[in-house]
Design goal:
Blueprint (H helix, E strand, L loop, with lengths): L25 E4 L5 E6 L5 E8 L13 H8 L12 H7 L3 E6 L4 E8 L3 H13 L5 H20 L6 H9 L13 H6 L2 H11 L5 E7 L3 H12 L22 E7 L6 E9 L4 H14 L5 H9 L3 E9 L4 E10 L5 H17 L4 H18 L3 H13 L6 H11 L2 H11 L5 E8 L2
Parallel strand pairs: 2-6, 7-11
Antiparallel strand pairs: 1-2, 3-5, 3-6, 4-5, 8-10, 8-11, 9-10
């Protein structure tokens, strides 16, 4: 499941701004289309093996939503050579940990083992790609697991429908309009053959990237990669359908009710460009200015100074085709959503019309420098970043060069991008209120 959280924080390392480490890696492509990235670091005896597939919720049939997330669960059921229920036991018995997650754009599987178990990890991931057992008992079991997850995270959780509400109002044509967990009605109606067809359409070498990061011998690893993945048949990767949304030119107002909340929430959502665009990174910085920490503008104004809200924040949810810039606030008891909206509008207007201070600018530059270090501090972090930069951005080099893009952003550019995307006539305003 997608978790909404900020990966940025003002970290202090030895009292100074950290310098991002240069990540060395090798990459090549097998004859069957599987792209392989090797990042060798022998400083600690652990290694992460990761496979990212270019399939997410946006690749689903609108009448069969939830398939990509469902497979995140289903492909732990077992394979022709790994008995049902044994996957996690094999990992644990060999000192490993692992997991998987799904977004609108991709599905990601990974394991971290002591380095002497790399061959085991490669064999397991090749089994998942080539020999999974997709049968009725596995489908029925995982349907119940997904139902319980939806009940726990969405149906019965306070503000659990937040992202579903935003997406359904912000997008009308693009598959981003539904949440990755999908519809339980669709999953219940789906047949075993439909699940098998989904796997056949998307889980092939040419639609994936394999990343190995950590402590390993490079030449031996290449032999194992070829041994376990090289014989998987080559299949052409699926063509991605492109969806174009009409621009929002007039503010859209909506109301959503939630039986699990007692306090209303105000949501402002703007449709913004792909995470591959420079403007998306500028919007990341604008999010930091507005809501990263208690010294940020929205928090200081709404929570500290005016005491209108219990909580207020914004974030740029970056995705492959479009992104969503979201501002939310929970008013204090006795305060109204309209009062909160007025202050949000004032703070957005300042970012659109005034240059941020040099001090504020230096603070967010420091944040991004330190974030670049922290995100690449472990083999798991490096593996995820290498996979994402290759598969979603189409540029593996960004693991080393993205920080230079952030460094090159100016105060004038921050103001200009805010003016471009954060206008009242370009947003959806949602009153997310307790169910009557």
């Amino acid at each position: 499941m997608k978790k909404i959280f900020s990966v940025l924080g003002l970290l202090f390392i030895s009292g100074a701004v950290a310098v991002a480490q240069h990540i060395d890696y090798d990459e090549y492509t097998l004859d069957n289309g599987l792209h392989v990235i090797l990042q060798q670091d022998n400083s600690a005896p652990v290694v992460t093996t990761a496979v990212m597939y270019h399939v997410g919720a946006k690749d689903e049939n609108p009448e069969r939503t939830g398939f990509a997330h469902f497979f995140e669960h289903l492909l732990f059921e077992g394979t022709e050579n790994i008995a049902r229920g044994q996957w996690d036991k094999i990992m644990a018995a060999n000192g490993g940990t692992g997991n998987a997650n799904t977004t609108d754009d991709r599905t990601y599987y990974y394991e971290t083992f002591p380095s002497n178990n790399l061959e085991l990890a490669l064999w397991m991931e090749s089994e998942r790609m080539f020999h999974p057992v997709i049968n009725q008992i596995g489908v029925d079991t995982q349907r119940e697991v997904v139902k319980e997850e939806k009940r726990a995270r969405m149906d019965n959780a306070p503000y659990g429908r937040l992202w579903e509400v935003i997406k359904s109002n912000l997008f009308t044509k693009h598959p981003y309009r539904w949440a990755p967990i999908g519809s339980m009605e669709h999953l219940n109606a789906a047949t075993l053959d439909e699940f098998k067809e989904f796997f056949k359409n998307f889980y092939m070498p040419s639609n994936a990237v394999l990343v190995i990061a950590g402590d390993f011998d490079k030449e031996q690893t290449k032999k194992w990669v070829n041994e376990y993945f090289g014989s998987i048949p080559s299949i052409s990767r699926p063509e991605k359908t492109k969806y174009v949304e009409d621009p929002i030119t007039t503010q859209i107002n909506a109301t959503a009710e939630d039986p699990n909340i007692q306090l209303p929430m105000l949501l402002n959502a703007y449709r913004t460009p792909s995470m591959k665009e420079r403007d998306a990174r500028v919007l990341d910085m604008i999010s930091s200015i507005l809501s990263d920490g208690k010294s940020s503008r929205l928090y200081k104004r709404l929570v500290d100074k005016d005491k209108l809200a219990l909580e207020a924040a914004s974030f740029n949810l970056s995705e492959e085709d479009y992104s969503a810039y979201i501002i939310y606030a929970i008013p204090m008891t006795g305060k109204t959503l309209a009062e909160v909206q007025t202050v949000i509008d004032e703070e957005i207007a300042k970012v659109c019309t005034e240059l941020i201070s040099e001090r504020e600018f230096q603070k967010i530059q420091n944040q991004y420098e330190n974030s670049a270090v922290s995100q690449n501090a472990t083999s798991e972090g490096i593996a995820h970043n290498l996979a994402s930069y290759y598969l979603l951005y189409g540029d593996t080099k960004l693991i080393n060069t993205e920080i230079d893009i952030y460094r090159s952003i100016t105060r004038e550019e921050i103001r200009s991008v805010a003016q471009k995307y954060l206008q009242p006539n370009q947003r959806v305003v949602i009153d997310y209120v307790p169910q009557k």
